[in-house]
Amino acid sequence: MPCNPHFPTPEMFAQLAAGLEGALKRQPGDAAAVTAQLARALRLNPATVVVANGSTELVTWLDQLWVTESVAVPVPTASRWIDRPMDSGKRVDLFPLREQDAFELDVDRYLAFIRARGSRAAVLRNPNDPDGGYVPRREVLRFLDELADLDLVVVDETSIEVVDTEHNPSVAAEAALRPNVAVVASPGTSLGLPGARFGYLVANPALAATVRRALPRWNVNGLAEALLGLLAQHRPAYRESLRLVARDRFAMGVELARIPELGVYSSQADVLLVRLADDVDGAELREHLWSRHGVLVHDCADQLGLSSQFLRLVVRPAPDVARLTEGIRTFLLARRPRRERRDPASAQLSAIPRPRPRPDLRPSSR
């Protein structure tokens, strides 16, 4: 699972540890109190914000309350937007992101697909997971405007904090002004504490109130509440940690791209998608990395729109990337003689075509 390795700082962990007994022994604030605290941090009206025990809780209620017939979802993407509607008997219209387009989302093609299928709800994850594709903010707003007649449009901004190609990529403030739009976020990974289980929704007051009424009054744990309080005191350190994640992402992409058998897709998320050469099996490589090098990666055989030829890699600092690339090279080196006996030119011919780079590869300062 992605997790910011640069946050919380050691000083913050010390503060959390010192306050742990109090956070766990006292009753946490109710949803209204935590919402007010979060709304101040987001600079939003509390009436437009709903807090939850992770964003999965919000996905469940959005599906139950607003997805009545069908929902359009680009694939590949996070499985929760597919599994939950399917489990509740809805039609899920899967819009394929194409490998030849480097899995970039073409907003116009997606809009045409939604109209052709007659979808009554739509999802857009930005940046996407597992490929890290990013849709510019102006395009997301155009997408929302074009679908003002749908029952619900959800923008999942789970990894929005690590985007560095735009200064203010979130559309949360605009969602609060639209009648059918909800922005969902789960900042635990960017805060470095996914175990705290904290998520939120931003929508117009009527939509937000409907979701809020469906949730328990005490649905956020004391640890998540304590983390929110500490974040207000450590915002400069948090911003610096996000800059370091963007730096790590760029450096990790460069190192992986040095391996001829890998194609690396540009990312604005905290993950990188890698395509393996046709004769390299992702499941075999995954097992090798775990058993020989203690590195855990995810091959995408279980992900709609992908296969075991793809690996989803969590962005990590340089020492971890060195272990990863050493393990990949060891695996490929052990296989290379066998491949070269089959075809003397295979070392070059089996290397995959490089994905067309996205324009957002370069890191920028925050």
List its traits.
four-stranded antiparallel sheet, 14% strand, Aspartate Aminotransferase, domain 2, Aminotransferase class I/classII large domain-containing protein, five-stranded mixed sheet, PyrdxlP-dep_Trfase, 366 residues, 44% helix, alpha/beta, 2 domains, Aspartate Aminotransferase, domain 1, disordered C terminus
Brief sketch in words of this structure:
Residues 357-366 have a biased composition (Basic and acidic residues). This protein has 366 residues and is α/β, with parallel strands linked by helices. 44% of the residues lie in helices and 14% in strands.
Question: What does this entry look like structurally?
Answer:
- The chain is α/β, with parallel strands linked by helices and 366 residues long.
- The protein folds into two domains: 10-234, 3-Layer(aba) Sandwich (Aspartate Aminotransferase, domain 2); 238-349, Aspartate Aminotransferase, domain 1 (Alpha-Beta Complex), CATH 3.90.1150.10.
- Helix content is 44%, strand content 14%.
- It has 15 helices and eleven strands.
- A hairpin with a 6-residue loop joins strand 8 and strand 9 (271-276).
- Helix 3 (31-42) runs parallel beside helix 11.
- Residues 344-353 and 359-365 have low confidence and may be disordered.
